[in-house]
Amino acid sequence: MKPFRPILLAAALLLFGTAASAQLSLTPAPPNPFPKPLEPEKPKPRPKPAAAPADKDKAKKPAADKAGAAKPGAAADSADAVDPDDPNVDLVYGAYQRGFYKTAFEIALKRAQELNDPKAMTMLGELYANALGIKRDYDKAAEWYRRAADLGDREAMFALAMARMAGRGGGPANREEAAKWLASSAKLGEPKAAYNLALLYLDGQTFPQDLKRAAELLRVAADAGNPEAQYALATFYKEGTGVEKNVEQAVRLLQAAAVAGNVPAEVEYAIALYTGTGTVKNEPAAVALLRKAARANNPIAQNRLAHVLLSGQGAPRDPVEAIKWHLVAKTAGKGDLMLDEAQAQLSPEDRAKAQDAAKKWVGGK
């Protein structure tokens, strides 16, 4: 049996039938690539602890980004930014979130050596792997991840699995070892591990292909709010792959993934809203999602939006804007003969406007 390659829901109205009117022709799109593995995320900053009165000015000095963590090298390192007398403060993360990576390293190293703290070990792996406050060293990162994983830290297990998959630290790539760590991490509830393990069961190379098991793992990750898993699982429900076919459930998962910002899910949820398949029909909401995804440079969304604007169904008719998006989509390989014909029927002035608008969009990306 050939490895299963899920046709993710960014395809077309083949997904939801042909409920669109004859005025709006949404042509099928090529299937999306096989889902990409999720890499380990940087530790999420904890809520910023209140600084002691004497430390307030010092705590305000680092320039933090929107996530609450300063960019590497953006601030001078200082242990004074963390109040050691506050029992509610996680000193390692308190330093990390301010960008004091050297301080985070020193505290984490002390905790790892004196308290055998697996979370501190995971942080050391993170700092070494990403050259935060210390020179990048994948071997040392893998060593700390392994020590934390041996103590049961699921995030370390996942990070170690991805390192072994990529051959970063601890020798050449080893898919079998990586799969074992993914399985251990997923068993402890790590959603990114569950998602990546599902991909291995889909691929059928490391493990025998098992679509039902893949669906179960995707469900774990989807229930934890992972948008990639929600999108992939929606495909399973749409196709009846590893689960009983359920278009309504597929659309609910698409909606969740779209709300989380998954662009392909936005496109497919928009199509479902536009056609009223698996959900209540809502053309204005569908067009709004298509615009959002088109502006995120999704060529399928750009193509669908061009059809909507050309037909005037769901949005005011605007042939110039329609052809603009058609031309933008074509630069990404999403051609459309019907829209080519519509472009040829424009007046020379309108055709020039559309071409100029498309050039500005592509040039400004």
From TrEMBL:
Residues 1-22 form the signal peptide. The keyword Signal applies. Residues 65-79 have a biased composition (Low complexity). This is Sel1 repeat family protein. Keywords: Signal. Residues 54-64, 348-359 have a biased composition (Basic and acidic residues). It comes from the Bacteria. Pfam families: Sel1. InterPro entries: Mitotic_Regulator, Sel1-like, TPR-like_helical_dom_sf. Residues 25-82, 344-365 are annotated as: Disordered. Residues 28-37 have a biased composition (Pro residues). Coiled coil: none annotated. PANTHER family: ACTIVATOR OF C KINASE PROTEIN 1-RELATED (PTHR43628), CHITIN SYNTHASE REGULATORY FACTOR 2-RELATED (PTHR43628:SF1).
